[in-house]
Amino acid sequence: MSALMKSKNSVTPARRRSGGWPRRRYVGLLLACAVIMSGLGAGGWYLWHNGIVGKTLAVAGAELSAWGDKQIIGAGLTVQHVFVTGRGETSKGQVLNAMGLRSGQSILSFDPDQARQRLLQLGWVETARVERRLPDTIVVLLRERKALALWQHKGRQVLIDHGGKVITRNNLARFAHLPVVVGKDAPKTAAALIEMLSQKPVLFAQVQAAVRIGARRWDVRLKNGIKVHLPADDAFGAWSRLADLAAEHRIFERDVAAIDLRLPDRLVLRLTPEATARKNKTGKDT
After folding, report:
1. pLDDT tens digit string along 35-81?
2. In a 10 Å sphere around its CB, with 0-12 CB exposed, 13-18 middle and 19+ buried, how is residue 142 labelled?
3. Are 159 and 166 in contact (CB under 8 A)?
4. Phi, psi angles (nearest 5°) of residue 183
5. How do 166-168 and 180-182 pair as beta strands?
6. Which of 31, 44, 66, 249 gets the highest tally of CB atoms within 10 A of its CB?
């Protein structure tokens, strides 16, 4: 575990005497309000209805809460250490800012559940658990998302995880090795596609991008520029067939622009414009 916040002082703060006068004063204020209300009758109802009494009680409650925090801090129950596990992509500053922590605050005023909810708003954080350990320590256990692909939509790219959730839009250069998926609904089905493609690792290593077509099927673009049209049904069968053809017949070494696998009983090759021109001129395939 790595400590994000260390104790500023090694000496335990001196305890302050917790006298009873402040509490008696606030309780007395509340009782006074009650007596005044009962004595004023209709006038008291007017004060209550117009919020005057409510505001007075709110001020008294805030002062009582502040007084209570001072007693807790005086007793040494303050946040001095924060330990975090599972943090890889999420920075220390992001964790502390999300939890709203400051060194020396009352540990009893810190709400672990609210801190957890704020941590879950961070792009890389998939799950979070926050524990308060008296007298002075907060423990945070994170599980971060795993990057799957770059999703290109409306001319911009974002990093997504296996569930299709956006992780981040920043510093994407170091994820350039990941495949790019294109299309409005591409994130929803990207994990299933990449799982299928990766079952043929030699061929998968050639994948650069995949475009979702009509919410039914995929076109895969290889690093050599060849576009592969996969069928809507039995896409894995077609992908396996292509892997075998690439290994046995070296079709990627030919002047091919596209490979259409949408028909189950045949494979259609479309030549590059240059190869087509040569074929028209000589009458022979290249």
Report:
1. 555 555 555 555 455 665 456 545 545 454 555 555 455 555 888 99
2. buried
3. yes
4. 130, 150
5. unpaired
6. 44
Which phi and psi angles does 276 have, rounded to 5°? -65, -40
* Domain identity same for 243 and 120: no
Beta strand spans in the chain (E): 2-5, 81-85, 125-133, 137-144, 147-153, 156-161, 166-168, 180-182, 207-213, 217-222, 227-229, 256-260, 268-271
**Which secondary structure element, helix H or strand E, spans residue 197, and what is its range?**
helix 186-197
**Count of domains observed in the chain:** 3
Would you list the DSSP string of 43-88?
Answer: HHHHHHHTTHHHHHHHHHHHHHHHHHHHHHHHTT-B--EEEEES-S
Q: Are 228 and 234 in contact (CB under 8 A)?
A: no
Query: How much of the chain exceeds pLDDT 90, in percent?
Result: 56
In terms of domains, do 123 and 207 share one? no
Domain for residue 9, yes or no? no
Is the same domain home to 118 and 238? no
One-letter amino acid for residue 20 of the chain: G
Of the two residues 161 and 279, the one the predictor is more confident about is: 161
Asked which of 144, 159, 189 is the last residue of a domain, the reply is 144
Give Cα 43 to chain centroid, integer Å. Answer: 55
- What pLDDT, in 10s, does the model give residues 98-109? 998 877 788 888
Residue pair 177/135 in contact (Cβ under 8 Å)? The answer is no
